[in-house]
Amino acid sequence: MYRWKLSSHEPCSSTCTTGVMSTYAMCVRYDGIEVDDTYCDAMTRPEPIHEFCAGRECQPRWETSSWSECSRTCGEGYQFRIVRCWKMISPGFDSSVYSDLCESADIARPDERKVCKNPACGPQWEMSEWSECPARCGERSVVTRDIRCSEEEKLCDASARPLAEKNCTGPPCDRQWTVSDWGPCSGGCGQGRMIRHVYCKTSDGRVVPESQCNLDTKPLAIHPCGDKNCPSHWLAQDWERCTKTCGIGVRMRDVKCYQGKDIVRGCDPLVKPVGKQTCDLQPCPTEPPGEPHSLDFP
User: Fold this and answer.
1) Backbone torsions φ then ψ of 212, nearest 5 degrees
2) Cβ contacts of residue 239 below 8 Å, gap of 6+?
3) Is this prediction's pTM over 0.90?
4) How far is it, in rounded angstroms, from Cα 245 to Cα 277?
5) Start-end of H helices in the chain
6) Gap between the Cα atoms of 264 and 268, Å rounded
7) Residue 138 backbone zone (phi > 0: left; psi -120 to 50: alpha; other: beta)
8) Beta bridge partners of 176
9) Ranges of the chain whose pLDDT falls below 70
10) CA terminus-to-terminus distance, the chain
11) Which domains does the chain have, with CATH numbers?
12) What is the structure's pLDDT at 8?
């Protein structure tokens, strides 16, 4: 009169990436109506069934840091914040990814700078953001920032001039590079390349800025996948971060000659992509906003 019946699958536990879909046993009577489990023999109850299920791919999103202090203590200045693209890579692993993922998803990028207005004032000291600490793990170094007077230098109070540099300590030595699986090959000879994400992580799995890992040992994020008989060609990695937080700095990328998956000599130097160029993310204090510099270094 009473028997065990497997329920239909419950919804997938994850709306994106891989989740779990479960099926449980329920007690029913002869006409299929569900009743209390005590009516069925507990010794013959089937075990729950858990199956993996794939939800839709998680969409990337922009995330921002909090706004910095105003670059001026009075009058009109700027506030800055860090904007990064994030994505759920797998259950429980939410990480920063390349910005082009958010851009290709047509998601509006939040502003990285905004105007801040304070009461009008006379000559005053203005300052940029602190530079990143260049110290390796466990070592000490110095960070700097630009200090300028809003008017002539002599009009600002020299005794109140903010510090232009201070000591800093490198990150803990538990930072390590972690990589995702390689993606599919994108094409044939000269065009084929595989891309993976490279993260700097702590021992407890947190993703931190790349500057906290040893950049000399950073794994490649882009790798050729053409046939070994393909002609040699140049392959450029992604650009590293700009060396300056304001004003004109320099950014670098690795450019190597490949044939198939091997590094070789023989690519035409006249068509080699540039490996260094100027970058101008935002004006330093008192500098009027201008057009980005596009001069390339050979």
Assistant:
1) -85, -10
2) 251, 252, 253
3) no
4) 15
5) 99-104
6) 12
7) left
8) 201
9) 8-21, 51-57, 89-94, 188, 190-191, 226-228, 245, 281-298
10) 85
11) 2-54 (2.20.100), 59-121 (2.20.100), 125-167 (no CATH), 176-280 (no CATH)
12) 66
